[in-house]
């Protein structure tokens, strides 16, 4: 909840009076601890005993939502939601498909880093161990790369509301190009798309006049739809009991991100978003007690490390002081000069003067002169 409301609730329910900056500081510190624990788990292997039991049929969806930052900046928070696919056949004519036991993971980061960090949640839900998995993306490129990493064998289904939005844009572009489009054409195409597949839509695209198909807006929408025809086989998906909408991803965005980070007048510093998202996912995934225990354990280990560091620093200071005192009381004995390896040469001059002595080189005969002969 917002920090000001948390202050009021603490005072009314517990009689504890704290200031809003204190609540903000404590919440951000606890969120940073939970974020650090999740990041460490993403890059390390956990024992399978700590994982939740996985369902046979699971679904997942990844989506993004923008949050306001300071100075008018906006940033995208990426979220992945996963759950158990449950089919309600109480009405055999139109069975309903629900995705229950939802859990989510959100981060403000780039697509590659998010794909690495989301491993901790998907591993915990045993998505890869499920017998069958469906992924309902909205068509974004980073979502397809995410699924290539975490769901290469998952059945990919283009979100039906997103497909309806793109088809509506396509028909608007065709109408702006001068083609008369009936008012109910969007509804009829979507009905056929949901009940019979994309054949009617493809037939319409094939019959476009060349002048209309070459327009930039029309060409862009036609290319988008044509590349995703394989993801729009909605009748087959519904017969197999799979959802055709990314309601789980939209729900995670609304509950985790928008309900807390996009309130009236809210603007966030970038480094405060992820700690708050860590706390929000702990609450929405019903893992608050587990997250609180992780925070307590991590703080205790950090305090123990800090105590050890302070103790080591004190011991080093005491050792340095003892060595300095010992040097002052017992100064070291000067080292005697080394003894010469060869005897010293005799002096070349007489003591106290500059006159050459008998050992001066001038008093010696050159070795090349002959010695004088004795008289006969």
Jot down its keywords:
single chain; about 375 residues; alpha/beta; five-stranded mixed β-sheet; 14 helices; elongated
Q: Tell me how many strands there are.
A: 5
Query: What is the number of independent domains?
Result: 2
Query: Which regions contain 5 or more consecutive residues with pLDDT less than 50?
Result: none
Indicate the proportion of strand residues. Answer: 5-15%
Q: From the helix content, strand content and strand pairing, which structural class follows?
A: alpha/beta
Per the principal axes of the C-alpha atoms, what is the gross shape?
A: elongated
- How far apart are the first and last residues' alpha carbons, in Å? 131 Å
User: Helix fraction?
Assistant: 40-55%
- Name the average pLDDT: 85
Rounded to the nearest angstrom, the radius of gyration is 40 Å
N-to-C order of helices and strands? HHEEEHHEHEHHHHHHHHH
Q: Major sheet: size, sense and barrel closure?
A: 5 strands, mixed
Order the strands across the largest sheet as they lie in space.
3-2-1-4-5
How many DSSP H or I helices?
A: 14
Summarize the helices and strands and which ones pair or pack:
Elements: H1 3-14, H2 20-42, E1 57-68, E2 74-88, E3 96-107, H3 111-117, H4 119-124, E4 132-135, H5 141-150, E5 155-156, H6 160-176, H7 185-196, H8 199-206, H9 210-213, H10 216-227, H11 234-239, H12 247-261, H13 270-284, H14 288-329
Parallel strand pairs: 1-4, 4-5
Antiparallel strand pairs: 1-2, 2-3
Helix pairs in contact: 1-2, 2-13, 2-14, 6-7, 6-10, 12-13
């Amino acid at each position: 909840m917002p920090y000001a409301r948390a202050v009021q609730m603490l005072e009314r329910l517990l009689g504890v009076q704290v200031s809003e900056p204190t609540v903000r500081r404590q919440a951000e510190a606890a969120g940073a601890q939970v974020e650090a624990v999740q990041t460490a788990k993403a890059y390390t292997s956990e024992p399978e005993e700590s994982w939740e039991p996985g369902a046979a049929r699971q679904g997942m969806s990844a989506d993004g939502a923008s949050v306001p930052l300071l100075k008018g900046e906006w940033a995208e928070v990426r979220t992945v939601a996963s759950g158990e696919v449950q089919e309600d056949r109480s009405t055999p004519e139109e069975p309903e498909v629900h995705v229950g036991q939802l859990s989510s993971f959100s981060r403000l980061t780039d697509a590659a880093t998010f794909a690495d960090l989301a491993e901790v949640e998907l591993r915990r839900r045993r998505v890869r161990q499920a017998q069958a998995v469906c992924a309902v993306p909205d068509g974004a490129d980073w979502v397809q790369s995410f699924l290539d990493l975490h769901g290469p064998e998952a059945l990919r289904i283009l979100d039906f509301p997103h497909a309806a939005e793109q088809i509506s844009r396509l028909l608007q572009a065709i109408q702006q190009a001068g083609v008369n489009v009936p008012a109910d054409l969007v509804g009829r195409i979507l009905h056929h798309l949901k009940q019979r597949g994309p054949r009617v839509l493809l037939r319409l695209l094939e019959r476009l006049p060349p002048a209309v198909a070459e327009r930039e807006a029309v060409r862009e929408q036609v290319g988008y739809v044509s590349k995703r025809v394989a993801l729009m086989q909605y009748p087959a998906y519904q017969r197999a009991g799979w959802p055709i909408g990314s309601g789980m991803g939209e729900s995670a965005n609304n509950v985790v991100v928008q309900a807390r980070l996009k309130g009236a007048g809210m603007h966030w510093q970038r480094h405060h978003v992820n700690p708050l998202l860590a706390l929000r996912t702990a609450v929405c995934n019903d893992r608050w007690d587990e997250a609180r225990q992780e925070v307590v354990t991590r703080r205790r280990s950090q305090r123990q490390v800090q105590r050890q560091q302070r103790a080591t620093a004190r011991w080093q200071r005491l050792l340095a002081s003892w060595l300095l005192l010992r040097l002052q009381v017992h100064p070291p004995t000067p080292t005697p000069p080394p003894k010469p390896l060869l005897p010293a040469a005799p002096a070349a001059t007489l003591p106290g003067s500059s006159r050459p002595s008998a050992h001066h080189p001038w008093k010696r005969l050159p070795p090349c002169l002959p010695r004088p002969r004795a008289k006969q």
